[in-house]
Amino acid sequence: MRLHAGNNVVGHFRPPQALFPCYGSQGILTRMRVLIVDDHLELAETIAAGLRQEGMAIDLALDGQQALEQATVYDYHVIVLDRDLPLMHGDEVCRALIKHGCRARILMLTASATIADRVDGLSLGADDYLTKPFAFAELVARIRALARRAHPAVPPVLTHDDLSLSPAEHTAWRGGRQLDLSPKEMAVLELLLAARGAVVSAEELLERAWDDATDPFTNTVKVTISRLRRKLGEPPVIETVPHVGYRI
After folding, report:
1. Residue 56 to residue 223: CA distance in whole angstroms
2. Which residue from 1, 105, 212, 215 could staple onto 43, CB 3.0 to 4.6 Å apart?
3. Is residue 170 exposed (0-12), middle (13-18) or buried (19+ Cβ within 10 Å)?
């Protein structure tokens, strides 16, 4: 399976650096979590690798049944669903997701570019449709549009006192000093700033900034918060709320 990069078809690509925020159940900006459903393992892993470079939490499913199982476990923002799947056709997966009240936006993929197929896919309840091969930049743009469709616009830069973060530019500043943050540190800081003073639990941070390969009993959130505090410097801005979570 091929991917277009810009106007060229390439086998390997390096997507442009950007971050793609989404909104959680409370209407606040959260790190996007996406499920990629495609039985072409190499293509699925290539897409996932590119989106993970952008700071997104990505899970994979290689057949329709696995996709449904994943969707019942995790609260995805967007599901990128291939139509031609083994065990359970993508159309049936889409119907089942809609029937059971799945809140994720559904972007269907297909190798067929006919108008009839696009109409059929959208009539099933899918939110958007994309044919293969496709430009990676277009896939990102469509995912981004789906994520914000039902939510109000937010400021392009998140701020708190002398601290600011631009998700689109993947940069953070404090007191005029640019912060050297890792992708996970950036993701955690974005979640905390977006909460606007509300407490964010360690479980939510783990779910939004990492993927299902992460051990739910790990102390990775605590370690990341500790590193982030050191980089943010004084005075402290991240508060620990015992037995609840963290807030700015």
Report:
1. 19
2. 1
3. middle
SS3 state at 161: coil
pLDDT number for residue 17? 34
Count CB atoms within 10 A of the CB of residue 92.
15
d(CA 106, CA 76): 10
Q: Report pLDDT for 12.
A: 33
Specify the pTM.
Answer: 0.57
As a whole number of angstroms, the distance between CA 23 and CA 40 comes to 29
Are the beta carbons of 38 and 66 closer than 8 angstroms?
no
Residues of the chain with pLDDT under 70: 1-31, 55, 112-114, 117-118, 120-121, 149-155, 211-217
SS3 for 21?
Answer: strand
Residue 95 CB partners (closer than 8 Å, separation 6+) = 124, 125
Q: Which helix (H) or strand (E) holds 206?
A: helix 202-209
Q: Give Cβ neighbours of residue 177 (< 8 Å, ≥ 6 apart).
A: none
Q: Which pLDDT tens digit goes with each residue over 14-26?
A: 333 333 333 343 4
**Cβ atoms within 10 Å, residue 110:** 19
Query: Coil, helix or strand for 50?
Result: helix
In angstroms, how far is CA 201 from the centroid of its own chain? Answer: 18
- Neighbour-count burial of 71, counting CB atoms closer than 10 A to its CB (0-12 exposed, 13-18 middle, 19+ buried): buried
The pLDDT, as a whole number, for residue 42 is: 92
Closest CA to 32 of 221, 154, 208, 214: 208
pLDDT digits (tens, 9 = 90+) for 104-129: 899 998 876 667 766 766 777 888 98
